[in-house]
Amino acid sequence: MNAKTLLTAAALAILPALAMACPSHDTASMSCKDGYTFDADSSTCVETKDVGA
C-alpha cells in the first residue's frame, strides 16, 4: 500500500467520528416566515390566524 492510499483510508475512518463529536448537530430548528408558525403535527408552516379579527 502506498502512502496516499493509507492516508485516504485513515481520513475516511476518522471523519465520521469527528462529525459525531460536534455538539451543534443535536437539535434542528424550524423557522417560518412572518405570519406563519410551525405546526409540529404536520411538520409544516401554517398561517397564523388572528383571534380578534
Describe this structure in words.
- With 53 residues, the chain is of the alpha+beta class.
- It is 34% helix and 15% strand.
- It has 1 helix and 2 strands.
- A two-stranded antiparallel ribbon has the order 1-2.
- The radius of gyration is 22 Å and the shape is rod-shaped.
- The chain starts with a helix and ends in a 6-residue tail after the last strand.
- This is Adenylosuccinate lyase.
Mean pLDDT score: 80
Radius of gyration: 22 Å
**SSE pattern:** HEE
**In percent, how helical is the residue content?**
25-40%
The total count of helices amounts to 1
Subunit arrangement of the protein: single chain
How would a crystallographer describe the biggest sheet?
2 strands, antiparallel
Low-confidence stretches are: none
Organism: Maritimibacter dapengensis
Signal peptide: 1-21
Protein name: Adenylosuccinate lyase
GO molecular function, one term: lyase activity
Question: Could you list some keywords that capture this structure?
Answer:
1 helix; alpha+beta; 53 residues; two-stranded antiparallel sheet; lyase activity
What does the secondary structure layout of this molecule look like, with pairings?
Layout: H1 3-20, E1 36-39, E2 44-47
Antiparallel strand pairs: 1-2
Give a nutshell description of this structure.
This protein is about 35% helix and about 15% strand. The chain has one helix at about 5-20, and strands spanning about 35-40, 45. Strands 1-2 form a two-stranded antiparallel ribbon.
